[in-house]
Design brief:
Blueprint lengths: L2 H28 L3 H22 L6 H6 L11 H11 L1 H10 L10 E2 L13 E4 L2 E4 L2 E4 H14 L6
Parallel strand pairs: 1-2
Antiparallel strand pairs: 2-3, 3-4
Helix pairs in contact: 1-2, 1-6, 2-4, 4-5
Length: 161
């Protein structure tokens, strides 16, 4: 097996896991299961961004040299979602920041606020507004992440074992 097959194979695995989590997330939304919605959403994001971390590497690295002739991701950009992944991986630090700014206002977390008005950014930690995952005052369009993931899947060589 050539070395590039290992990276491509893992990317395929992470894409498959992300797609399964995305489908489960959509089912949870349809079934009005808030806890399951956020559970699946978290896992979808982690798997999707793992694909980006595996395949969008720094030029000059050994992995870049291995993948250079086997994959072209020009025009695909998941980097904005790395920030969200970092938020989720460092949740304790984000919670510390939120608590340090807490002054007694209502606390919302893991709420589906689709169609609701008047939610201030500092009032919630995590929320879902339609297709937008809102975390710690920032918005992340989920369909964009999913579309970019599918684009990467199309570009992955099919002859890697």
């Amino acid at each position: 097996m050539e070395k590039w097959h290992i990276y491509i194979g893992e990317a395929r695995t992470q894409i498959e896991f992300a797609k399964r989590c995305y489908a489960a997330y959509l089912d949870a939304v349809a079934g009005n299961s808030v806890s399951e919605t956020f559970f699946q959403l978290h896992h979808f994001i982690v798997h999707a961004v793992n694909v980006d971390k595996l395949l969008d590497i720094k030029s000059g690295s050994e992995r870049a040299a291995i993948l250079r002739d086997h994959l072209n991701l020009d025009g695909v950009d998941l980097k904005p979602f790395r920030r969200l992944r970092n938020h989720l991986e460092h949740f304790d630090e984000r919670l510390d920041m939120w608590v340090s700014k807490y002054y007694g206002q209502p606390f919302f977390d893991m709420n589906i606020v689709t169609g609701a008005k008047g939610f201030r950014d500092h009032a919630f930690l995590r929320a879902l507004d339609g297709d937008i995952f809102m975390f710690h005052g920032e918005d992340y369009p989920l369909s964009l992440l999913y579309e970019q993931l599918l684009e990467i899947e199309k570009r992955i060589p099919q002859d890697s074992g």
